[in-house]
Amino acid sequence: MDMLVCIKQVPDTEEIKKMDPATNTLIRKGVPSIVSPYDKNALEAAVQLKEAQGGSVTVLSMGPEQAKDALKECISVGADRAVLITDSAFAGSDTLATSSILAAAIKKLGNFDLILCGKQAIDGDTGHVGPEIAEHLGLAQVTYAAKIEIKGDIIVVNKEHDDGYEVIEAKLPVVCTVVKSINEPRYATIKSKMMANKAKIEVLSAADLPDIDTAKTGLNGSPTRVLKTFAPPKRGSGLRIKEETAGESALKLVQKLVEAKLV
Predict the structure, then answer these.
(1) Which stretches make up the Electron transfer flavoprotein alpha/beta-subunit N-terminal domain (predicted)?
(2) Taking CA atoms, which of 39, 84, 152, 162 is between 20 and 30 Å from 206?
């Protein structure tokens, strides 16, 4: 069973403290980069399926040269092959452009039984790329997978909802996006890290993807624009009402609401 996992190297959002007021973008200087957490779940799902069913796992990412570090991390926890798409013509691509580039690369790399993605990246939180890849490739898609089983050429997925699960079957090949609850990603060992550091990362550029129109990629070629990014203002500590009885607390609350002209 041949599987491909799309991963993205993102800034560690827990370490981002400031925004650039002039450009309304995140200040990434000094902020470490990590593999987007949901993508780690997607990779772990693929590795577990490989261990159970046999086959191979390819990881694919689009980004700058430094994204090779993220790909090597993926190799250290079970991926067999890693491919980086990098080209200045692709810088600043929105989700539609990104998904079209990834889909073109997937076509070039071969035929895959299962393509896995995290449900969303933590820097954009759009959840667009996985489903858009499926559309570009003309494949069935199942999103928000919390459990995946393979039965011959059929995939059985427990799709997560707020109030339970929906069980969906589809014939392979399929594009599937996964949620955090699907598994607990494994850690690399010292030995696997050392082996991954020696791994060769294949690189694709715009010239390797002739089906891609570079006029429709990058910041200028993307149909969407981010007009403003900002950190929400911090909320005040609020008012705690705690009288001797519940009735007195309720009365005090009503008085405060009246004073504030909210009732």
Answers:
(1) 23-213
(2) 39
Residues 137 and 204 in one domain: yes
pTM to 2 decimals? 0.83
Domain that holds residue 244: 233-263
My answer on whether 113 and 237 are in the same domain is no
- How many domains would you assign to the chain? 2
In our burial notation (b when 16+ CB lie closer than 10 A, e otherwise), range 218-233 reads: beebbeeeeeeeeeee
Structure token digits, residue 75: 């190799």
Q: Is the dihedral of CA 7, 172, 144, 151 positive or negative?
A: negative
Task: Please tell me the distance from the alpha carbon of residue 156 to that of residue 171, in angstroms, as a whole number.
Answer: 9
Q: Compute the chain's Rg from CA coordinates.
A: 23
pLDDT tens-place string over residues 208-245: 999 999 999 998 899 988 777 666 777 777 888 989 99
Q: Domain check: are 61 and 189 in the same one?
A: yes
Place of tokens 């589809």: 170
